[in-house]
Amino acid sequence: MAETTTRAPLPKGFRGAEQGWPELRRIPHPPRRVPLLGDVLGVNRRTPVQDSMRFGRQLGPIFRRKAFGNEFVFVWGAELAADMADESRFAKHVGLGVANLRPVAGDGLFTAYNHEPNWQLAHDVLAPGFSREAMEAYHPMMLAVAGHLTDHWDRELAAGRSVDVPGDMTKLTLETIARTGFGHDFGSFERDRPHPFVSAMVGTLTYAQRLNTVPVPLAPFLLRGATRRNEADIAYLNSTVDALVRARRAAGGDGDLLDRMLDTAHPDTGERLSAENVRRQVITFLVAGHETTSGALSFALHYLSRHPEIAARARAEVDAVWGDAKVPGYDQVAKLRYVRRVLDEALRLWPTAPAFAREAREDTVLGGDHPMRRGAWALVLTMLLHRDPEVWGADAEGFDPDRFDPKAVRSRAPHTFKPFGTGARACIGRQFALHEATLVLGLLLRRYELRADPDYRLKVTERLTLMPEGLRLRLERRAVTPAGLAPAEAVDEASSEPRCPVHGARD
Ligand code: HEM
């Protein structure tokens, strides 16, 4: 797993495409480039990913965009993306939005530069926290949080109201990672407005994205107010996490991620994470562990509501696999193969982390055609890779979970489905997210019929991750339900109570 570097580390931060790509001129860019400003005509600073998707469709499998003097190369064709997945020649690049998160997440797992020793240390210490055994231990806590969601949805249904899907999925996934990882309860379902921690987190993510849309030297002037707010947001995130860690140190825990961070020494070197690094990891996991999963669940629910025949098939599977069980066991979630395909298909069309960046470890030639110097990088635009008609067919834009039928998967080229990134720096929380999301979809399908608003048109917001905007669904309790359909209270709360001494404050 270790990323060995035999040469001096590359310089940090932005490396311009002009320096990195000797034959940059051969890579197409949008027409109508404006001197000094670049490719800014017809773009919306709030939707850079969807703009890039539009450009990609016009310009082909590799293209470039320039804004305020910075030029970026994008890759989305299946062959080129597969070439960039070659770990012997390419590695993760920390740039653009990810680098903008360094002030808050520092050398935490997601934002660490490849050469920073804390990446390997934290990876080795924390990876067992995502093993199968660890997932089984999280399962009852995931169920308990899902019980809060269904309680809330039952109340909304009884009051004749539709439900706010992205808002509620965000509450669910934040509570899940906070409880399973850190024994903390933000009390999201008891609040009318987002917890201040969530607002601060959304603030820093939005700010990180905005930094890409203004000329770097002008950012302190153009974003003066936003910069001040961002500093306050970061201070709030830090102080909340510090309180959580202090309380845990005082009270002890029983083996969750935070305990691992605080107590586990590296198996080979005996090294431990520093206090500063623990703070960064906690923030990293709270952010990375919920934003993307809530989007994935929201898109899946959108498509299930639009395709009653797919929902019926998924529901039939849940009934067959879970039968009369009051609550599903860990293995019964893994057996929901079709529900899992629904989720994969939602992540194909809307990979909620819609791109990741790769840099050349040495001078190389991408796809045998585009020379790159050591350190040159490109963004792999997953959202378009997942819609490449050469891979997914002429109906690539349509929602069809059977694309993830095992036979169909085997017949596709490797590296064509990459919602969790690639290589050593791929998502450490993949199994966690998939288990949580499959479990929740199963519970919701078992309990409700999902009714779409016929006037709703899918609109996607971007704040580094993707989320359907304004998606509300009407619910109906299922007319015929299996005997075991459990009320939320049936979930054994006692076995899954959060263990965090500060949670009582519901700060
Ligand atoms: C559907 C849900 C999720 C998606 C789509 C997703 C996607 C990704 C992607 C694309 C990367 C690689 C980024 C890059 O190359 O720059 C990544 C990394 C990461 N993810 Fe996730 N993620 C999800 C859920 C989670 C969860 C639940 C957790 C934690 C519990 C998590 C924690 C992380 C961390 C810590 C990294 C950095 C890993 C490293 O560099 O060593 N993610 N994720």
Automatic annotation (TrEMBL):
Record flagged with keyword Metal-binding: yes
Keyword Secreted attached: no
InterPro entries: Cyt_P450, Cyt_P450_CS, Cyt_P450_E_grp-I, Cyt_P450_sf, Cytochrome_P450_Monoox
Start and end residues of each stretch annotated as Disordered: 486-507
Alphabetically ordered keywords of this record: Heme, Iron, Metal-binding, Monooxygenase, Oxidoreductase
Family membership noted in the UniProt record: Belongs to the cytochrome P450 family.
Name of the protein in its database record: Cytochrome P450
Species of origin: Streptomyces cylindrosporus
Domain of life the protein comes from: Bacteria
PROSITE patterns given in the database record: CYTOCHROME_P450
